[in-house]
Amino acid sequence: MNQPHQLPAWPRLLMRRNAAAYLDMSETKFQELVDSGQIASPSQIGRMVRWRLEDLNAFVDELPRRDEVPSGWEDAAA
Fold it and tell me: What is the 3-state secondary structure (H, E, C) of 50-61?
């Protein structure tokens, strides 16, 4: 019997590549969304730069549905 694919348990702080993977997008697109202010800026602990999981969840929670896309969000969906 096939086992369902298990996703990893995500830590509360994610480096850029893991934050992008969590949102299922490229690091380039992720950085574009950060630079445009659509995704919250990272936190810094010493030299480590990390995104908070709750900020990434808030970004997803605030995304409009495909048929509800307000003006200005077209580029975020690309």
Answer: EEEHHHHHHHHH
Q: Give the residues across from 44 on adjacent strands.
A: 49
Partnered with residue 14 across adjacent β-strands are 51
**CA-CA distance, 25 to 3, in Å (whole number)?**
25
Question: Which of the pair, 29 or 69, is modelled with greater confidence?
Answer: 29
Angstrom distance (rounded) from CA 28 to CA 6: 26
Q: What is the pTM of this model?
A: 0.75
**Residue 56 CB burial class (10 angstroms; 0-12, 13-18, ≥19):** buried
